[in-house]
């Protein structure tokens, strides 16, 4: 058993309101500069829809992720080393700028500087990349925003195309039959990242201390194989610097014990950050299981119980500090993924072992039951309504469990049971333990899950140990804070840096082996 630690995220889709605050704050923090005009490390998609870049889930076209060979081994869908070497100067499996969108602004000076006259001045759209006028704007990063189920975009959703023959009449895009929900997306910081294996120059790497996947800008040669290799299309090419860039999981903030900027600013409070311990020796075997629907339970088996004394001993032997072990024991992510098992991975069939998981949406079930004139939070009504969910369970399964409807149904039933159980508690009625036992949980676990999903405080949603604490302590020991001559703190003296800056300026150069 080789224990490693990973900072992971869970997003509760039941609470996402599609406000895009996370996207805007991430854009301002990380991609508000030349060469990244079209780049959104964090974006929020309306499903069903084509997404960003357009139809990113169509791996028959983009060849992202891994595939299992007949011998049971994994290989990149984009091909082996020889094929990638042959395409190193001309890679056909790359999204074009129009698949993302042509970033534009407007000629506002035409409005502000136009001379007085009888004609109304017009601010024409111009490309932020070329500076040339754009005749007609035809696509954008949120072009189908709030149009889930609309006939223009929903039928082109790769998941709809994949399952339409299977579910038939369950997916109809007339107005009264339409459905939608929001899917925020960032880099998955996978346990088995295809982007890292695709990179010819070794610029992509996964950090040992926290599992964050980064790009070494000094080593990147701009081959863009990582863009092809990432099945989530969350690696971008900066056309100004000629380098690949991606979500950094806000590692300077995480190293200081702070949440990512998208989590910090989330209006719906639907993001959770915490530590997951996993057995690195099991990752390759779990990613190569034969049946795609076994990938989700196989990844679950890779995660380790931080309360197990044997795991704790092995973790300490691997160099994981007590601070990180304590964070793993208090991790909200571990509770949602393992304890309550209500969070699911995004497209496990890509075999990258993603570490950003999602709680599927239940709200449409409650609303549908209430609209029918029945009690929208009664356990019996909710359990029966899940089978007739307006969002087909098959669609959620294609998104989160490689088509395994049983796993999605189990999660939705637990969410419904939690609502029904806590409703009785909040109304002062007698607790009905049969509701909890029907979904394999106890009443106390129901209450704890409700507290975490509904009313968790800041410190409960984000349990992040500071990185390099030992380095900071060593620095403090080497340079006492009080200078003998004038009593000024040495950290604030000219030429020195405060401890906080040392934490934030740590260079992410450590690589996993």
What this model shows, in words?
This protein is of the alpha+beta class. It has 3 domains: 8-101 and 141-263, Alpha-Beta Plaits, CATH 3.30.70.20; 268-461, Alpha-Beta Plaits (2-Layer Sandwich); 469-504, no CATH class. Helices cover 35% and strands 12% of the residues. It has helices at residues 21-30, 59-62, 81-86, 97-100, 109-112, 158-167, 194-198, 225-229, 251-255, 261-264, 283-287, 295-302, 309-317, 322-329, 332-339, 363-371, 379-386, 393-400, 405-426, 433-437, 443-454, 458-461, 469-478, 499-504; strands spanning 3-12, 43-47, 66-68, 74-76, 104-106, 125-127, 181-185, 204-206, 213-215, 235-238, 243-246, 271-279, 344-345, 356-359. Helix 19 packs across helix 21 (443-454). The two termini are 16 Å apart. The relative contact order is 0.15.
Summarize the structure.
This protein is of the alpha+beta class and 513 residues long. It contains 24 helices and 14 strands.
How many H/I helices? 24
Query: What coarse outline follows from CA principal-axis ratios?
Result: globular
Q: How far from one another are the termini?
A: 16 Å
Mean pLDDT over the full residue set: 84
Strand content: 5-15%
Task: Report strand order across the widest sheet.
Answer: 12-1-14-13
Could you tell me the CATH topology label of the largest domain: Alpha-Beta Plaits
For the record, the count of structural domains works out to 3
Approximate helicity band: 25-40%
């Amino acid at each position: 058993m080789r224990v490693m630690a990973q900072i992971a995220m869970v997003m509760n889709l039941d609470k996402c309101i599609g406000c895009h605050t996370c996207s805007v704050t991430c854009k301002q923090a990380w991609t508000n500069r030349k060469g990244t005009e079209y780049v959104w490390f964090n974006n929020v998609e309306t499903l069903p829809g084509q997404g960003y870049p357009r139809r990113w889930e169509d791996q028959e076209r983009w060849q992202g992720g891994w595939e299992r060979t007949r011998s049971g081994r994994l290989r990149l869908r984009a091909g082996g080393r020889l094929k990638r070497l042959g395409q190193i100067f001309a890679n056909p499996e790359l999204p074009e700028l129009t698949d993302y969108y042509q970033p534009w602004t407007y000629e506002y000076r035409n409005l502000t500087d136009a001379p007085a006259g009888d004609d109304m001045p017009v601010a024409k759209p111009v490309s932020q990349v070329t500076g040339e006028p754009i005749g007609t704007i035809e696509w954008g990063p949120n072009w189908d925003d709030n149009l889930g189920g609309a006939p223009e975009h929903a039928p082109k959703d790769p998941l709809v195309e994949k399952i339409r023959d299977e579910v038939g009449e369950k997916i109809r895009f007339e107005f009264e039959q339409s459905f939608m929900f929001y899917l925020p997306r960032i880099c998955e910081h996978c346990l088995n990242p295809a982007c890292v294996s695709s990179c010819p120059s070794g610029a992509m790497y996964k950090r040992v201390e926290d599992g964050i996947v980064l790009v070494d800008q000094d080593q990147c040669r701009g081959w863009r194989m990582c863009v092809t290799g990432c099945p989530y299309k969350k690696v971008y090419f900066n056309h100004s610097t000629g380098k690949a860039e991606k979500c950094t999981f806000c590692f300077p903030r995480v190293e200081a014990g702070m949440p990512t900027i998208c989590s910090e600013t989330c209006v719906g409070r639907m993001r959770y950050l915490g530590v997951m311990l996993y057995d690195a020796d099991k990752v390759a075997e779990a990613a190569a299981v034969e049946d795609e629907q076994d990938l989700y339970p196989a990844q679950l088996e890779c995660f380790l119980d931080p309360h197990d004394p044997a795991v704790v001993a092995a973790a300490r032997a691997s160099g994981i500090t007590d601070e990180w072990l304590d964070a793993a024991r208090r991790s909200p992510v571990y509770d949602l993924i393992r304890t309550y098992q209500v969070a699911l991975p995004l497209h496990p069939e890509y075999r990258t072992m993603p570490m950003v998981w999602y709680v599927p949406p239940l709200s449409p079930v409650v609303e549908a039951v209430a609209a029918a004139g029945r009690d929208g939070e009664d356990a019996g009504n909710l359990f029966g309504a899940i089978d007739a969910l307006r969002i087909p369970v098959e669609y959620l399964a294609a998104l989160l469990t490689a088509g395994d409807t049983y796993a999605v149904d189990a999660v939705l039933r637990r969410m419904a049971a939690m609502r029904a159980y806590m409703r009785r508690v909040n109304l002062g009625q007698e607790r009905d333990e049969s509701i909890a036992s029907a979904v394999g949980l106890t009443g106390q676990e129901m209450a704890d899950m409700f507290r975490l999903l509904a009313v968790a405080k800041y410190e409960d949603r984000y349990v992040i140990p500071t990185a390099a604490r030992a380095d900071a302590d060593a620095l403090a020991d080497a340079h006492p804070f009080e200078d003998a001559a004038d009593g000024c703190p040495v950290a604030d003296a000219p030429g020195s840096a405060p401890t906080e800056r040392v934490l934030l300026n740590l260079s992410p150069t450590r690589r996993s082996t």
